[in-house]
Design a protein that fits this description.
single chain, mainly alpha, two-stranded antiparallel sheet, 7 helices
Length: 204
């Protein structure tokens, strides 16, 4: 649920209070980013249901694909930590993805005692099909941007992603809000941290 811009929600139905961050530079951009990520998440929910995938299946598959692209091993324990799942829930997700032909288990060449997960060509093909409409629509907008605008996005979006990741770690640890991070300012203003757009890893 999202509070009005410039306010924070208060318990018990009390009137909202002005956000301590409303006068900070870029405050309004936080809501634009949240709207984008919410719509991206909504799109992912629509298409994953058509392909018979559960919500956690998509996120687990994205984790596997991203690790594969970066050339690093990914194991069941990594999925459990990233998605905050129990061991049994992680096993269930992996079994579903294996049965659907989206991932395979293989012996990790770096440590033959470990089993790594790899996305199949079927998974990449399904990902391209699932997210083709969104890819086409977003690229049409980006193609209308100038080189300077693209460079700003290319440089700043990873930094914002890292900010959200740091905020997530702080939230998991139960620490105080990090006023210095853009992601935590969004959480304070909107009542929830903006979800990371899940489709990115599955698009190609």
């Amino acid at each position: 649920m999202q509070a009005d811009e410039g306010t924070t929600s208060t318990p018990g139905g009390a009137p909202p209070e002005p956000s301590a961050h409303r006068d900070r530079r870029g405050f309004d951009v936080l809501f634009l980013l949240q709207h984008f990520s919410t719509e991206a998440e909504r799109y992912a929910d629509q298409v994953r249901r058509r392909y018979g995938l559960a919500h956690k299946d998509v996120h687990a598959l994205n984790e596997v694909m991203q690790a594969n692209r970066e050339g690093r091993p990914v194991r069941a324990g990594d999925i459990a930590r990233r998605l905050v799942l129990s061991g049994s829930a992680t096993t269930t997700v992996i079994k579903r993805l294996v049965s659907a032909g989206h991932i395979v288990r293989s012996i990790d060449p770096r440590d033959r005692r470990e089993v790594s997960l790899r996305a199949t060509e079927h998974a990449y093909r399904a990902g391209r099909e699932m997210f083709a409409p969104m890819t086409e629509e977003v690229l049409a907008v980006l193609e209308d941007c100038g080189d300077d605008e693209i460079e700003v996005l290319r440089r700043r979006l990873p930094q914002l992603t890292d900010a959200v990741r740091r905020a997530g770690r702080r939230a998991a640890e139960g620490g105080p809000p990090a006023a210095s991070t853009a992601a935590t300012a969004a959480a304070a203003a909107a009542g929830t941290a903006p979800p990371a757009p899940g489709p990115s890893a599955a698009t190609g």
